[in-house]
Prior knowledge:
The chain is an all-alpha fold.
Amino acid sequence: MSQKGHTRSTFSGKLGFVLSAAGASVGLGNIWRFPYLAAKYGGGIFLLVYILLAMTFGYTMIVAETSLGRMTGKSPVGAFKAFGNSGWLRFGGWINAIIPILIVPYYSVIGGWVVKYLVEYVLGHGSQLAADGYFGSFISNGVSTELCFVIFAALTLAVIFAGVENGIERVSKFMMPVLVVLSIIIAVYSVTRPGALAGVKYFLVPDIEHFSWMTVVAAMGQMFYSLSIAMGILITFGSYMKKDISIEGSTRNVEVFDTAIAIMAGLMIIPAVFAFSGGDPAALNAGPSLMFITIPKVFDSMGLGTAIGILFFILVLFAALTSSIALTESAVSTFQDELGWGRKKSTAIVGVVMLVLGSLSSLGYGPLAGVRILGMQLLDFFDFLTNSVMMPIAAITVCLLVSRVAGVGRIEQEILLSEPRFRRKRVFNAMIRFLCPFFAAIILISSVANAFGWISM
């Protein structure tokens, strides 16, 4: 079912798919968003809820999207069109395809910030990074942020030019093991700091008193970030998957890999910040302030702060790159499939889109700081639009496609091509028909209500 005009690329085997899909999953959302949300919504109880959701909701969406991709041999638009050409199917395909095109430009801006901080740590300027006001002055300097953004985008595009097996798979096979080793080193260092054990206990030991409905909503939202579901990525990667590779087995490995890295991120950051702040969870502020303001201050207060800073930002750079590569590949694959373009032309066009939209986000804290949408700066608006609005809608369309059009039986047939039985069929059936669309609708409604100030999250 390959598109005329280009031969469908493939991963070399299970390891290539698992490490590439895990690379897509392990990104900036794991490193800064997971620890912040865990600290805000109950520590250990948040972690427990997240793991339960990853094993049910996350598992179901990964299996569904990967199966749709492998079954059709297409990226999202083509995968949806393979089941009909009605209006909502076209909409479902395109919303899954457009999400990565909108995410990767602003994601690359944040990746550029990581490049800047890594270079400064290598140059021995860690104390400057920890100074009050450094981050604000850096992102308001349009020239500096634009340069760093372009460097990060160029690194991403270079890997995409090289192709699936020689580019994405080869880079993932190198970066993901390094990322694991670095996260272990930093986590061990962090949990052995004086005063850090209180943070370890808060993060790992569930306390039911800290549980609230928002714990569930926040964990569901994080799962979209962490597992790269509803972004079109897994449909695209599924289309590169050989028929003899186990979908359920690969999904289980991605789940374990991603959850392990999220736990390691929590152990890297929460105990260190607890020790630094005297046990105050509020010190784990949201978003950029944690990564680029709090963490440098924590490292500056430690022995070996510069060395740990270098290792930490290498880890973050690798995590950011593997995710941006996956997002960009999904966008490139859509252009190849729908327009019949070659890889180089498709990559060049996506690169232009990245440069234009990314520059808006890059300059949104500097020369374009006065431009706001719904009260948000441009980067924050693109983040809200994709993650809080489009991704829940995309998830609902996948659920409807599988449960109402393709049928769970078609998914089972695809899974049985590479394994003797569909082990978690009952879980999959119940989740894809009822619970996944219900949960996705809750995320959509609560996120939009929060953005308009109707509720507080």
